[in-house]
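Extended Data, panel c. Modelled sequence:
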Amino acid sequence: MPTLARSTTLYTCQQCGAVQQKWGGRCEACGAWNALIEEVAARPGPRGRGSRARRPIAFTALEGDVSPVARRMTGIAEFDRVTGGGLVPGSALLIGGDPGIGKSTLLLQVAAALSATARCAYISGEEAVDQLRLRAERLGLRAAPVQLAAETAVANIAATLDQPSGPEVVVIDSIQTLFLEALESAPGTVAQVRASAQELIRLAKRRGFVLLLVGHVTKEGMIAGPRVLEHMVDTVLYFEGERAHQFRILRAVKNRFGATDEIGVFEMTDAGLNEVANPSALFLAERERDVSGAAVFAGVEGSRPVLVEIQSLIAPSSLGTPRRAVVGWDSGRLAMIMAVLEARCGMAFGAADVYLNVAGGLRIGEPAADLAVAAALASSASGRPMPPETVVFGEIGLAGEVRAVARAEARLKEAAKLGFTRAIVPVRRGGGGGAFPGIALTEIAHVAELLAMVGSAPGEGPMERRAQHG
């Protein structure tokens, strides 16, 4: 009698995909708590049965003719910018973001824009077709020739897409709702997400259609499911922003067909997402010019220069351990800048609460923001506003030295375009002048020079004056 394949119980971490034989409260691989889920895996049959004969693979030379990639342009300039100039046929894109941030709205607008030149399908595992129609009507897209379906079985979806007249652009909302009947685990588990994505990506590569996958995120902001999912797709996009805020940032963290760290800026309205062609002007629209604790940072996101306001507030603390609250920047980087200001410049933060905010909902990750953060802190400590119409950028080292950053000219051009007339920047290599068309440059080599300009010498800040008056 043939021996039937037996099944065994395994415990898979929903954060990293590691497999353990026994259940535990903490994953041994990544350290996540309460992330192990019981799954039943079928044991393989005897070796050799049903296996294909092995054959050697054929290699080819690195040199050869390569035809240019034909992209599908959506007409939504901000989306096309982030994807590297349009969607590549046969590619798979993963779009993640917090619940309610606007992922489904964005992809429905993308599908409607592409439907004028390509066959588009929107398959939802979370909403009914009537709900999708209501959203399309609210967005003014009711007449777009987009095919809708509500399905969660991967086998049925694959059978529909694997046809000569199948769609050329497919949206799956979301990958965590799909399941394969061959697996006994529930939808959303590591095994189901990995297998479902692999089946659809393999089909997209073979048939040549564009696959857009929506992914849920965890409370840490990472895409839920196995991390291998991000390695399987060609492009990973994160949709960022606060639901109570109208701005949305579409950020590319991986792109095999374009630049990474590229961003697109959108504004959420009652009629959907509107692209923002000049995000710098939008981020600075509500800026107060004569307020202490604020500095304008000239940053670069991908290939785009962006100006944003960095706000700081230093207040006396009654706690034994003062608070350090950061929104839009790295808290560890803030601690380093404060330590440099204390050790190298004589400033004191030990008895104060420090709050730092990047206005507009943008998250900054480049070290070039160090000098702008130091300027905001110094301005808040002294109670004196920064010089008017001034932008700041530069990296700060542990010795207090100010280091040059990349793409300084693009940052200055963006500042000049928005009417800024002065810039505080690192000393340029080669000592090339102190001027730029339309902007007067102040080059500094040490952060102490910045503090002297803002007037935040030790003992002059509002906290020191408050202590002196008792």
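Residues 249 and 265 are 5 Å apart (CA to CA). This feature is highlighted in the accompanying rendering.
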